[in-house]
Amino acid sequence: MNLPFRVDNCSIERTLDIVGEKWTFLVLREAFSGVRRFADMQAITGAPRQVLSARLARLVDEGLLRKVPYREPGQRQRDEYRLTDKGRDLYPLLVALMHWGDKYLTGEDGPPVALTHRDCGAPIEQFFRCAEGHEVPGPREVTPVPGTGGQLRSA
Fold first, then answer.
1. Among 2-16, 64-78, 135-149, where is mean pLDDT lowest?
2. What does DSSP say about strands 65-71 and 77-83: parallel, antiparallel, or unpaired?
């Protein structure tokens, strides 16, 4: 893709600066599954304590998670981690990664998890649609144009 405008302020690059690491995606996966506490995330993901602590701190700093204090009886106060609206907006990205992995990396037994609509039980599908309601089947039907933050390349 040879764009006639500069992409030095690329949204993909800026997003990957925040979430483009395995442990970050696994933390987000668990947060979307309702896991909120450090010990539970560590047990499920297998992340080293320091790595998990750093990832959670970064996600809080970036506004994807927020800390909420809690206290078990007889224990000191701790924090649990809850998704913010900004964090929840990453859900389609995680589902897209999961669907890609299901299609290309799943073994003979099939995908380990299926996502279904809570109300009717139908499988969740993802697809692109333009603002006029037309389904967009792939990248060949998309034209990149400069956005409001885009800048033309200098010759």
1. 2-16
2. antiparallel
Question: How far is 27 from 56, CA to CA, in rounded Å?
Answer: 8
- C-alpha 153: how far from chain center: 31
Q: Can you tell me which residue has the tokens 């992409």?
A: 7
Query: Which helix (H) or strand (E) is 82 found in, with range?
Result: strand 77-83
Closest residue by Cα to residue 41 from 23, 61, 60 = 23
pLDDT tens-digit profile of 117-147? 999 999 999 999 999 999 999 999 999 887 8
* Residue burial 22-33, b: 16+ Cβ < 10 Å; e: rest: ebbbbbbbbbee
Q: How far apart are CA 81 and CA 71, in angstroms?
A: 14
* Spatial distance between the Cα atoms of 31 and 55, rounded to a whole number of angstroms: 12
